[in-house]
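Sample pair:
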Amino acid sequence: MPPLVLFGLTAVLLWSIVSHRFERWGVAGPAMLLVLGAATTVWDLPTYAAALDAPITEKIVEVILSILLFADATEVRGGIFGGEGRVTARLVLIALPLSLILTAIAGAFLLPEALVAAVVIACVIMPTDFAPATRLLRSRLLPERIRAILNVESGYNDGLVSPIFGMALPIAVVIAPLVEKMVATGSDTVTVDDKDLGHSAEKFAEAFVNAVPATVTAIVIGVVLGGVIGLALRAARGRGIANEGGARYAMLLLPLIAYAIATIPAIEANGFVAAFVAGLIYRVARTRGMQERVIPHSELLLVEEVGTLTANFVWFMLGGAALVAFTSSFDWRILVLALLALTLLRLGPVYLSLLGSSVSRGDRVRIGLLGPRGTASVVFGLLAYNAFETDSVEADAVLLVMVVTVVGSILLHGVAAPFALRALEKRRVAQG
């Protein structure tokens, strides 16, 4: 077993033993596991850096992401977009694409040397996740409606970004060395006489052509598996053939099977896209005919627990990744991009997308500012870092911006936001 995996499992084990006491003191699991990850890897950072860039790490984080995306898709209450369908649809279909576009533009402007990775960077740092800021969703200071909207949005953000990420990454990986060769040779075009550049151009064309079919295939796999298993389990539960335990096992195995089928060499589709779509369609099929359109929590319990366990392992990995990123280099432009991503590049699109909706002006601002970054950003960042060439400009930029954005989100949303909400509530009471 690789040392990275062993140390991570040990850290999660130790945290599981003492977590209750620390959480009562206000210490969140992500923050503590981040510290443990940094403390563990500081003694042998080169070895950890090599492990972070190893193929097995890529597979581990892909499987973790598949489980998390499936869990996100199945936990939604109500219709496709939850109980606040119209509002959530605006957020994920209008605000999210606009945020990605603006972030990619900002990344290209601030980091021109990593231009080919601009879309990948946007996909890494824009999905929201409330894992590092669970107190916000539990806070009575936040209206129940806003909590419900943010919860559904965060789950869907990860899933909808994943196919874009899955298409953008292989294209960027192929383009990066092509651009470097152009710069090195002083050429702005790919010539027929240059065999190396011509080969890179062919690889780019192949990556571009294969990216879309791979995503479409993954969607088809997810639809078929999710629909069949969802309807089968609904019928089995209705006739007493399956019990709650069987349903729990089915829900845990379904994303793993979807990922495994999608990544068969003969298929080579996007595994985590297949898992997310499978979760979405499974929920629709499983809850068909139900009044509340929600999967019973007794059936969700196992996949939720496994999702939490694997997410904890990701936070441990982030601690080591932070050391690798900060010891290699630091660029003030990365900090600017992270701050923009956490504030204006989310707030603006969210506010615009909700114009004319039933959401008040104040609540639009709250939704726009309360967009924590978490597990999905870490996993996307690690996948991108693993895919780009070692010590390349793109790899270093992706890793550093991911670390700065997520750590900044922990400070902003996990620490500062609860105090800000209390201050706003006191001001409202005083004025009222």
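The longest helix spans residues 195-238.
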